[in-house]
Each structure stands twice: as structure tokens, then as C-alpha cells.
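Practice problem. Given the sequence and the SMILES for nicotinamide-adenine-dinucleotide, write out the predicted structure.
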Amino acid sequence: MPSSIARANRIAVIGAGNVGVTFAYSLMHSGLASEIVLLDLDKKRTEGEVMDLNHAVPYLRTVAVWCGDYEDVAGAAVTVISAGVGQKPGESRLELLKRNVDVFQKIVPKVVENNPDGIILIATNPVDILTYVTQKISGLPKERVIGSGTILDTARFRYLLGQHFRVDAQSVHAYIIGEHGDSEVPVWSTADIGSLKVEEFAKGYQISFDDKVKEEIFTKTRDAAYHIIERKGATYYAVAVGLVRIVEAVLRDQKTVLSVSSLIEPEYECVSDVSLSLPSVISRAGIEKVLRLKLCEEEASALCHSADVLKETLGQLEV
Ligand SMILES: NC(=O)c1ccc[n+]([C@@H]2O[C@H](COP(=O)([O-])OP(=O)(O)OC[C@H]3O[C@@H](n4cnc5c(N)ncnc54)[C@H](O)[C@@H]3O)[C@@H](O)[C@H]2O)c1
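Answer key:
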């Protein structure tokens, strides 16, 4: 572990599985962090990951990577939690969730005790529920508890729209909001390409864009994880890069608008006291603003439904 007291760009990762290690690897490429500490229950495997990661340092920008303990979370600007347990045969989603809440009940107090001033960024699923739970357990201001939320779904949506319209996905401005999951909501009413509404773009360049196409793009976005997991067992590259993008906005105080999950209060539409994703301004302070979108009626009611789905689950947890 480095002895340096200057820990401005220390990032901690709790849960060094597929997501945690891929995030660390992507972060190393970004050159954003000076120190990356990885923690996992499986210390031996984490040591192996750290050795492998460190052997890339001579060809990347200098960064200290080590396998640490909770004391090493001290001073981290962001602590990413990607720790979780997998589904046991015959286990319901709720039972699995309760076990992951137990995992968070062990992790979060130790993070806060060692690092009361840092930001916690949650990736573990169900990410909106665990973002809410983390905020409650930690007692941190809601600005400093961020869930990766729909950052991944928004990336998938933009990628698919870019493919359909044959433009760079980076020139597509469109968001998925609400739950990171089955009830998520595509915001078609504000989606644009280079400031042209997608409908206008389609009309102007004779590209098919009817309800069937929209449904197809959204379904592929929403169900992407199922298709990937069916083929390779897990998803981790895109979420890892999404996490790096959030960390970049924090470390560089960028005030970037990203769709992430946070505790929504005061009430927005019919959403309150629940964590879900809306485009939010992210800076060194965490979530500076949650944008109040002008949704059409259909989108607003879909967002309310998404909030209700999440609230129902929270009700079963009694948090
Ligand atoms: N938010 C997203 O968009 C998104 C995308 C992909 C995956 N995920 C989620 O991320 C989580 C991790 O996925 P993965 O593929 O990396 O799983 P994984 O099984 O590869 O890694 C999980 C790690 O957590 C560790 N762990 C469990 N309990 C712990 C504890 N108490 N303390 C420290 N470490 C602990 C395990 O040892 C394991 O190494 C899952 O919940 C998955 O659903 C989220």
C-alpha cells in the first residue's frame, strides 16, 4: 500500500469480481486515478488480479494498484461497490435481494467509518434498491450516494439509435430513465441527433422510424443483459466504462449530465422517497442537480409506474 498522504485521486473498489476488476482495468487506461485499492472476500483471487493489473502499469500511466482492507478506503474520492452474491438454485429474486442487502449492511458502515467524506458509487444489482438502502444505512447526504442506474441502458439506447440512424452514438442525445431493469423508460420526446429531434432526422433523411422500430430499439436496449448473459454468463465491459465516466465527472469536477440513480426528493412527477435514474449533473460534490425533464404524458406515467415497482420491492424489505 502506498504511504502517500495525498490521496486526492484514490478510488476504492469493493467486490473484485467481473465488474470490479474490469472497472479497475478501464480506470487504469483512463489515467484518472493515482491509486486504486481493491477489496474482496476472496483475498487470494484479488491478489492475483492485482498482480496481473500491476504488470500493465509500465505500458499505461502510473498508478498504484493494491489489494487492501477497509482502512485503505480512507480518503478515496469514490468507493465503487460491485460486491454481491449470485442467485442460488431455486432462490427467488427477493431472497437474493435480501442476501445482497445483508452484504451491504456489512460493507457500507465500514466504508463510512473509514471514509465519511467520500462518494459511494453502487453497481451491484438491483442497483436502484441498493442505492436507496446504501443511502439509508450510510446516513450520507443523498448527493454522495450514486447508483450507476441507467448509465448502461442509456449507452445501449444511444448505441442502437446510432446504428439505426447511421450516426456516431456520441452524437445521439437520448436517455433511459427510471429503474435499471424491466420498468425502465425511454425518453423519446427529447431524443435528438445534432439538435434535430429523431423524428425530424428520420423524415429528413428517409429513415424508417415508426412505432415498430421504436419498440424494437427499446426492447433490445431493455433486454440486452438477458441476451448477453445467455451467451457469456455476465456483462461487465460497458458498465465498467460507464462507472469510469461517472468517476471522471467527479474527479474532474466536470458537471457532466449523466443518467444515474439517486434518492429522489422532493417529489418529481409522482416519484418520491425512492432511488431511480434521471439525468443528473455530476461534479466533485456528487450529484449537484437532478434534472426535472419535461416528459410527455405517456413517459411521465411510465416513470410513475417504474417508481411504484421499486417502491413495492422496498416495501417488502422494510428499510
Ligand atoms: N449496474 C449495472 O449496470 C450492472 C451491470 C453488470 C453487473 N452488475 C451487477 O454487479 C454485481 C457484480 O457482478 P459481477 O459479475 O462482478 O459478479 P462477481 O460474482 O464476478 O463479483 C462479485 C464479487 O463480490 C464479492 N463479494 C461478495 N460479498 C462480499 C463482501 N461482503 N465483501 C467484499 N466482497 C464481496 C465476491 O467475492 C465476488 O468477487 C452483480 O450484482 C451484477 O448484477 C450491475
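Check your answer against the key. Residues 93-114 form the longest helix (22 residues).
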